[in-house]
């Protein structure tokens, strides 16, 4: 009987060990696939940065470029500041950003606009709210509106998700502060949760019935969320192009001045008529749609 118990315990221990080893192996393999071993290789390019860009157009654009040229591009998110830091530290070949250049950004990185975006306000799909005013958005970030009942929908706490990097402002937060809040910081409260990137923000709203967030329309359209009208205007491409929907902003590729030739070829393709038409085919506003 005692031998049976020992064998059973030993078997359970082996099973747990095998399961843990399998989980560890999956994690290691996923990290290897997600993070290529080095930024600088003749076989592929690497990029990181703005989650709105990566989800909205860059991953698909990289696949199209590979289809045309055979050149592989590994793309990951992390946020605009992550992309800038990765470039600064030589971890990637180029990056994506949804904020304009700031005085603290490295001088040897060029900000090349490749598309247009607009800020969008998103809620869980079950939320009955359809429209929000900019004044109501400001009241949410000021801590004056803390429940959905104050906005005329079902009661319950309003959970605000904000993308914030470890240092500085994320691309979406910087745009929100500039275009919506008039330079004022959001109020921190028990209703506010800060996360690492806009990609995580969007995923949190997908999963949280009381969730609310600001993100980019370019990536929001690819999520299972409800996108609100603003002052009665839906954020369609036509409304954004015609300036009837506010909160338009540029999307950039960040390119080091010492970039390898293949990076420059990818940027040239992105800016070409063929590249811009492909971006437009993804339901993203191209440079062809809006003339500066």
Salient structural properties:
292 residues; alpha/beta; D-Maltodextrin-Binding Protein, domain 2; 3 domains; 10-stranded mixed sheet; two-stranded parallel ribbon; 12 strands; disordered N terminus
Under the CATH scheme, which class of the largest domain? Answer: Alpha Beta
- What is the name of the CATH superfamily of the largest domain? Periplasmic binding protein-like II
CATH architect. name of the largest domain = 3-Layer(aba) Sandwich
Count of distinct structural domains = 3
Order of helices and strands, N to C?
A: HEHEHEEEHEHEHEHEEHEHHE
How many helices? Answer: 10
Averaged pLDDT: 87
Estimate the strand proportion.
15-25%
Low-confidence stretches: 2-38
- CATH fold call of the largest domain: D-Maltodextrin-Binding Protein, domain 2
Binned, the helix content reads: 40-55%
Oligomer: single chain
Q: Characterize the biggest β-sheet.
A: 10 strands, mixed
Estimate the global geometry from the Cα principal axes.
Answer: globular
**Span between N and C termini?**
83 Å
Outline the structure in words.
The protein has 292 residues and is an alpha/beta fold. The chain has helices at 2-34, 51-69, 80-88, 134-141, 171-179, 198-207, 217-220, 237-241, 261-271, 273-281; strands spanning 44-49, 72-78, 94-97, 109-123, 131-132, 159-163, 192-195, 211-216, 226-227, 229-230, 248-256, 285-286. The chain has 3 domains: 1-34; 44-116 and 250-286, Periplasmic binding protein-like II (D-Maltodextrin-Binding Protein, domain 2); 118-241, D-Maltodextrin-Binding Protein, domain 2 (3-Layer(aba) Sandwich). α9 (261-271) packs across α10 (273-281). The chain is globular, with a radius of gyration of 22 Å.
């Amino acid at each position: 009987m005692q031998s049976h118990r020992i064998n059973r315990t030993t078997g359970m221990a082996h099973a747990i060990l095998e399961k843990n080893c399998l989980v560890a192996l999956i994690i290691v393999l996923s990290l290897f696939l997600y993070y290529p071993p080095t930024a600088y290789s003749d076989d592929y390019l690497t990029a990181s940065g703005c989650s709105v860009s990566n989800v909205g157009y860059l991953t698909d654009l990289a696949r199209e470029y590979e289809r045309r040229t055979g050149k592989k591009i590994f793309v990951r998110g992390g946020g605009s500041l992550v992309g800038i830091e990765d470039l600064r530290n030589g971890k990637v070949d180029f990056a994506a950003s949804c904020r304009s250049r700031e005085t603290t950004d490295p001088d040897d990185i060029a900000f090349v606009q490749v598309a247009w975006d607009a800020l969008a306000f998103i809620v869980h799909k079950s939320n009955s709210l359809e429209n929000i005013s900019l004044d109501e958005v400001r009241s949410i970030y000021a801590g004056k509106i803390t429940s959905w009942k104050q906005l005329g929908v079902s009661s319950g706490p309003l959970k605000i998700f904000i993308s914030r990097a470890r240092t500085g402002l994320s691309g979406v937060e910087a745009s929100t502060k500039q275009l919506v809040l008039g330079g004022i910081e959001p109020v921190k409260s028990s209703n506010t949760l800060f996360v690492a990137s806009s990609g995580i923000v969007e995923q949190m709203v997908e999963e949280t019935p009381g969730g609310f967030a600001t993100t980019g329309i370019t990536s929001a359209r690819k999520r299972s969320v409800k996108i609100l009208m603003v002052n009665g205007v839906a954020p369609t491409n036509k409304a954004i192009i015609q300036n009837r929907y506010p909160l338009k902003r540029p999307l950039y590729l960040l390119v080091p001045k010492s970039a390898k030739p293949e990076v420059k070829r990818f940027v040239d393709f992105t800016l070409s008529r063929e590249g811009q038409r492909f971006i437009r085919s993804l339901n993203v506003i191209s440079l062809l749609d809006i003339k500066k």
